[in-house]
Amino acid sequence: MPFSASIVQFCSRRALAVVLVFAILTAAAGYYAATHFAMNTNSEDLLSKDLPWRKIVLNYDESFPQENNLILAVVEGVTAERAEQAAAALDSALRADPKYFATIRRPDGIPFFQHNGLLFLPLADVQNTTQQLITAQPLLGALAADPSIRGLMSSLSTALMGVEAGQVSLGEVARPFEPLSATLDNVLAGRSAFLGWRTLVSGSPPSPREIRRFVAIQPKLDYGGLQPGAMATETVRDAARRLSLNPENGVTVRLTGQIPMADEEFATLAEHMGLLGAATALGMLVMLWFALHSARIIFAVVVTVLAGLAATAAMGLLTIGRFNIISIAFIVLAFGLGIDFGIQFSVRYRAERHAVNDLDTALVRAGAHIGRALALAAAAIAAGFFAFMPTTYVGVAELGAIAGTGMVLSFVFSLTLLPAILRLLNPPGEPENIRFRALEPLDRLTERRSGPIVTAGLALGLVALALIPLLRFDANPLNLRSPKVESVATALDLLKDPDTTPNTINVLTRSREAAAMLSQRLSQLPEVAQVLSIESFIPDDQPQKLTVIQDAAMLLDPTLNPFLPMTAPTDAENVASLKDAAMALETAAAKEAGAPAQRAHRLAMVLQRLADAEPAARVRATNALIPGLNTLLEQTRNALMAEMVSYETLPDDLKRDWISPSGEFRVQAFPRGDSNDAAVLARFTRAVRAVAPDATGTPIIIEESGRAIVNAFIEAGILSFLTIAALLALTLRSARDVGLALSPLVLAGALTLATCVVVGIPLNYANIIALPLLFGIGVAFDIYFVTAWRSGARGLLASPLARAVILSAGTTASAFGTLSLSSHPGTASMGALLLISLGWILAAVLFFLPALLQYFAPKAGLELQ
Description:
65% of the residues lie in helices and 6% in strands. The chain is α+β, with helices and mostly antiparallel strands. Among the domains are: 66-108 and 211-266, 2-Layer Sandwich (Alpha-Beta Plaits); 113-208 and 544-636, no CATH class; 434-496 and 733-865, Multidrug efflux transporter AcrB transmembrane domain (Multidrug efflux transporter AcrB transmembrane fold, Up-down Bundle), CATH 1.20.1640.10. Strands 3-4-2-5 form a 4-stranded antiparallel sheet. The chain has a 4-stranded antiparallel sheet with strand order 9-10-8-11. It has a two-stranded parallel ribbon with strand order 1-6. It is elongated, with a radius of gyration of 37 Å.
């Protein structure tokens, strides 16, 4: 009696004891897994730290830790002043509650830039800006002394007196008419309203940069959870809610950065999970029913697979300590292949039960018939997975260790626990033969036309091999995430602005002089848009610019800093000033024609309506007009306080962003062109690395990660293939049969990758995990057919074995094919690749392999008996 049959006989005769022992072991494994479950969600730990480019990344992160693992709050306002107010408020609120934050910074809001911002403009722009301020001096002076509706209306009335006296035309003072009318119209209609004072002074609409501010937050992370920054992220959102920083109040706060994107990715993965899970369960049950036709057998298979999963999880945690975001895929592998082992044994049991109609005999005969094939398949798959362990892709190395162990456990459970449960459940007999009679014509076709089928398969394989070099690996993590998610949509917005793109490259130099020399060399590259270093914060032409600024400051200082500011007005004073201004506008409009007069008449009507409204309307008007005014006045005062900037006077917090504690100077290069275009980034990366080989940054990390992952999978694939070939050679002792067992796997793999080229599915971090499942299922199916053929079986496609293979593949497709419906692009691509690979595996096993066996080994048989 074969050893596998002896094991099954032993376990079925002592079924109750075996089930109890396994129940205790499974409970213990489940308890250990639940109480010791740990998850490292840090994607940076997936690749070996010994890789040369990883060492550069780690050195840079150690030198500038404040730039790593950030939550970036992007604050956008309807006006520049509103954006500044909101960013300052959010920054203050977060600093007051730092429990979940390591650092909080406003890179665009430090005092250095508030005081010296004008120095970084070209000289012509400095002259133009100061001239605009001087031109607005009468308005600013009245408002600085009386920042209220009364002060605004008084300054408007004063300007209109000049029109009345003929000193200026109505058109020359009409710039604020339309913005004031629109703002106060919204106030009177109960809508959100904010006046853009910077726009009012400059006369031009604000640029996206002017209405956007940033708060850079470095959270305290818990990598033991699926969302390491969840508490910090929610704290930021809570602060924004408490401050009413929302569109109704003229502000949008969006979060992006490594942490929100990683956390939201898990949320996207969970989206519709209930529906997808229900569809998966239903599909699996349907396929299992077609395969097994018995609720008792289905129950036995499912319990066995779940017990194997619990044991695999416990072993993984015991040996490795924690899962990573790749190794957790062992669930997919162990479940899919565990289901296959269970179906193979159970279908064989059904066939034997029909033949002998005795439960114990059928179980033992099933073990004798399928045990050797299952053992060989499990050993080959496990050896293949263990071959992943030497790769530098730590995520896959750990996956190989856990999945390989899972294959061994699945095999053991399938020959011990499964027959014991079946013995206790005692499913009814099998009155009908379970052969696939509908496939008998296909058996005859593969027998008669084996040569042409083999030729067609080889031709397809050659075409596939020609297409594989065109296969693309998409290493851009943004493409794996839903663009509808806030963090991704915000990142894509920032990528459109050359000054805010995260796709920059950094280089560390040993001295200030070396940094200056490298900056000059990089600036000359056509692929580089701009280069920043510590020298970038020492403005050019400072004497000329300071002269212009200081002249404006001397002229505007009494205006912006009145000696005797007025007290806040009463509501009655506001009403009176509104009516006076309305009357002055009507008088001026009556003397002229054209657009300025029409705008003056419209504003007069709006002011009169506001004067006649309830006091609450004027309070809302004050809130719409005055906070922005105060912000503009404060920014103007600060901007006119510029002083000579030198390396020695640069603030420490700014220097810390560009000089490491060990004295290394950072140089940052920005790409020219679309920074989210893979070709643009590739050219940019090559050009910069040709000048600075030790550079690092997002484009380099994307490129090198992709290369490392692809190389790891190629290395693992070759090593796994050789390991399996060696194992099959030792077992089958026939080079021909080893080739017959592996050829369909190679063909299915080539056709899978070629299909990805044809339909435009690139490999990526997510769907590449489908390849080990393709590998495992393909090896198992091939071994089942070859060992059956060697034992003398013919007509394989109509046999119970083909039924088990087809329905096992169908069950796996039901289990994981629904992933293609996920709203998460990476998961959807993994589901699509799984379905493609399963389709080609079945085609190779059902069409190519039988023809191959018939053509090359027509008389093989009885070697294994």
